[in-house]
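From: lab user (bench 3)
To: helpdesk
Subject: output format question, protein + S-adenosylmethionine

Hello, I'm new to running complex predictions and I'm not sure whether the block I got back is the full result or only part of it. Here's what I submitted:
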Amino acid sequence: MQNTKIFFNSYAYDFNALYGTQKNPVNFILNPILRKSMKLRFEKTMQYTHPVVGKTVLDVGCGPGHYSIRLARNGAGAVTGIDFSEEMIGIAQKKAKENNLNDICSFVVNDVFEYQPEKKFDYTVVMGVMDYIDNPEDMIKRIIELTRLKAFFSFPKAGGVLAWQRKLRYRERCPLYLYTRNELEELFSKFKSHHYLIEKISRDFFVTLTI
Ligand SMILES: C[S@@+](CC[C@H](N)C(=O)[O-])C[C@H]1O[C@@H](n2cnc3c(N)ncnc32)[C@H](O)[C@@H]1O
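Helpdesk reply: Thanks, we reran it on our side. This is the complete output you should expect:
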C-alpha cells in the first residue's frame, strides 16, 4: 500500500496527462487501447449516474479529479474526491478552482479505509482503483458502508498480451491485481443482498453495484 502511494505521488502529473488535457510527451507515446478503456469507463460512469443533479457523490481514488469535476459540471449537489496521494489531490484542487467548482467539489487526502464521513453518499465511483487493492472483498464492504444508492467500479481484465505487458511494467512500481469474469462473479456473489452487473469494456470490467 505504501508503494502504491509513493508510486502515485510520483506519477500524478503523467497520469493527469493521460486524459490529454495537457501538452506532455506522455501524450505522444500513449497506448491507445489504455485510453480507450479509460474513455469508456468515464462515459459509462456519466451515463449511469445521469441525472446526477442534486446527488452526492464520493470519488474514491479520485486522482487528478476528472470524474469529480465532470460530475460537478453535470449538476451533482456535492462531490467529494478522496485519494491518499497528496500530489493527485493538489492537481484536483487546482482543477476545481480553475473551473469555479470549489463550492461543489471538495478533496480529501486520506486512505479510503480510514475515511469517516458524516453521511453516506448517493453514488460512489471507484474507477481505476481496484487494480491496486490487495483485499477487494474488504474494499467492496467499505464502499457499501459509504454508499446509499449505487457504486460503480472498474476492474482490470486478466489475460492477453496487454495484461501481461502491464503486469511486467508494474513490477517495479507497485502491486497490480487483474481479474477474470469468474473471479469477479465469485467476489460479488459474496454480497448476496446487493444486485450487481458486470460488463466487459475493452481492457476493463465495469461493475455496477446496487446497494
Ligand atoms: C489510476 S488512479 C485513478 C484516478 C481516477 N479515479 C481516474 O480514473 O482518473 C488510482 C488512484 O487511486 C488512489 N488510491 C489507491 N488506493 C487508495 C486508497 N486505499 N485510498 C485512497 N486512494 C487510493 C491512488 O493514489 C491513485 O491516485
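A quick orientation on your result: The chain has one domain: 2-210. Let us know if anything else is unclear.
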